[in-house]
Amino acid sequence: MPLLVFAAKETPGRMNPEFDRPSVPADIDPAIAQAGREVSILTGSLPSDLIPDSNNRRTYSMSLIYALVARGGTVLAAHSGDKRDFSQATQAILSKIPPNNSKLTYVWEQYLFHYISEGGLTFLVMADDAVGRRMPFAFLGELQQRFTTKYPPDVIYAAGDNGLDEFDPEIGRLMHQFSTSPPPDALNQARQDLAQVKDIMVQNVEQILSRGERIELL
């Protein structure tokens, strides 16, 4: 039975103030902020671990929430900084990434999915929208460099699902580093790279979903 997409209008009293849009960081393109506001809200109750705690904070601590390295639709290595299952959400996005080299940000609810696709590999990170783009893309650039330095092409293209999961802890270490103290050089390089592709950087997830598809966190 196909999954259905339900786009619901906001109902007074239903939205929690915690999930209102945060102030826009200085490095985020206005187009992203506007795109984020335009994404429809899918019906259904929020997962319990997305509900703010008693101190009015989200339950995850890192601004980089989930990251992976994939070859096509095959996830080779991944790490989550959160207890939720992001496999359905990321697989839906991976299936829509074109085979050509590209850098893009997909907007979905309060999240941004940033990716670099190059040489048949995709480096993707899911981040809170409050952190903007520069730091996540700096993270992706460093992730790409470390992964392709560690593994030769023959190993990469012979690996199956989670075939290089020995790299998972390295992804986790990088996520923590960039969430807490990102290297200045990496941020500067990311700023230059973003300036070159700023006009093609943002797309709403709804625009890439086929009829009957739905993204949800499990």
UniProtKB/TrEMBL annotation:
GO terms for cellular component: endomembrane system. Residues 68-175 form the Longin domain. SUPFAM superfamilies: SNARE fusion complex, SNARE-like. CDD domains: Longin, R-SNARE. It is a single-pass type IV membrane protein. The keyword Repressor does not apply. InterPro entries: Longin-like_dom_sf, Longin_dom, Synaptobrevin-like_transport, V_SNARE_CC. Its main location: membrane. Residues 186-218 form the V-SNARE coiled-coil homology domain. It holds the Pfam family Synaptobrevin. Keywords: Coiled coil, Membrane. It is found in: Endomembrane system. It comes from the Eukaryota. Belongs to the synaptobrevin family. This is Longin domain-containing protein. It comes from Tulasnella calospora MUT 4182. The lineage of its organism: Eukaryota, Fungi, Dikarya, Basidiomycota, Agaricomycotina.
